[in-house]
Amino acid sequence: MKFFNNGWDKYLEDEFEKEYFKELLVKVDEEYSKYKVFPPRHKIFSAFTNCDINDIKVVILGQDPYHEEGQAHGMCFSVLPNVKIPPSLVNIYKEIQNELGIEPPNHGYLMSWAKQGILLLNTTLTVREHQANSHSKFGWQKFTDRVIEEVNKQEKPVVFLLWGRNAISKKELIDESKHLVLTSVHPSPLSAYGGFFGNGHFLKTNEFLKSKGREEINWKIENYEN
Q1: Cα separation, 58 vs 63, whole angstroms
Q2: Which of 8, 213, 41 is nearest to 126 (CA)?
Q3: From CA 110, how far away is CA 220, in angstroms rounded?
Q4: Which pTM was predicted?
Q5: Which residues participate in catalysis according to the annotation?
Q6: pLDDT for 133-173, tens place per residue?
Q7: Residue 160, beta-bridge partner list
Q8: DSSP labels, 2-63
Q9: What is the DSSP letter of 73?
Q10: What does the pLDDT look like over 31-69, one tens digit per residue?
Q11: Which of 34, 54, 79, 206 has its CA 20 to 30 A from that of 215?
């Protein structure tokens, strides 16, 4: 079975055949038929289709998709260009500005990061409207654990940015003798002042990539022109 038509299929094809994954897809289908679920069905795997496993330099790990109308499109923390920038992403932009002096863009679309090799991955890939974590027990966690394990096996060193308890719980899946793992509280307004601001993660990411002979990330996102 192929899902992504890129390098991911080779690494995950056996996972797609496992019973839990088939059951997961049935549960997700039932949810879409009965409730409003995000992201749109055809966007569930956008993080994978827009960032090939062979190109990954950075993994940013979120919790689950935004659960309000029009926000989620399958890449963690990102929204489409004409959607109001969510508070967590506002704080991410603030930290980038504080560290690197980069002015925040006028939108929250993070595609330019994905195209540079940043996997914008949520630990759970779907959510019911207005109900955060409503699909967290469906089996997505098992699938995204496998994804992290496959990235961990890659020869090239990768930076993992784990923000918040859900993300930090995945730390045990990563070989820190090869990869860089940076952890902090979540950028949500509820926690950002408890350690997200001032964590230095964006600067440290580029320092690590440079030290390993890999191209640094250009964190600057160009403004969106209507």
Answers
A1: 17
A2: 41
A3: 10
A4: 0.95
A5: 64
A6: 899 889 999 999 999 999 999 999 999 999 988 889 999 99
A7: 59, 181
A8: -SSSSHHHHHHHHHHTSHHHHHHHHHHHHHHHHS-EES-GGGTTHHHHTS-GGG-SEEEEES
A9: -
A10: 999 999 999 999 999 999 999 999 999 999 988 899 999
A11: 79
